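Exam revision sheet. Question 4 asks you to relate a sequence to its structure. Input first:
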Amino acid sequence: LKTTLVTCLMGLLPIDAGSLSFDGEEITTFAPERRAELGIGYVPQGRMIFPMLTVEENLRTGLAVRKDGSKKIPDRIYELFPVLKEMKNRRGGDLSGGQQQQLAIGRALVIEPQLLILDEPGEGIQPNIVAQIGEVIRRLIKEDGLTVLLVEQKLPFARKYADRFAIMDRGRRVAEG
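Answer key, structure tokens:
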């Protein structure tokens, strides 16, 4: 169910009922790339980076949908994730799981989104990197005013780094706080 929710939000699967709006615009039928153009960044579960491309090439893949047409990777990416700058010429497939997750988040951030959807950003990553990613989420919210939709099964992580949370069971909200 969680996977279906996120894939519908991103336009990868059609929704069964209702509609989706973003920033006052009906986006229910928009393709994923159109949603990215509107300012929705997405980091899928499992990262899905391009393993044969370098870190820099992976980051550049997101630039095509920037509203301002910039072809420059924002400095903010390397500020948030210094390891990506150090390894910008290394292939994505040669990075550790945590570094790949940082790359996937960086790739979503190059469009300078208004909304960032993170699907289980700590999955399969060592605890110290999960904490670093949590701190980056906190910085994005506080410093950049970014709205983050965190889809996470680990409630302690969600409670620590999110302002609000909702627990869903079979598509229905059963708790929030």
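Marking note for examiners. The two ends are 21 Å apart (CA to CA).
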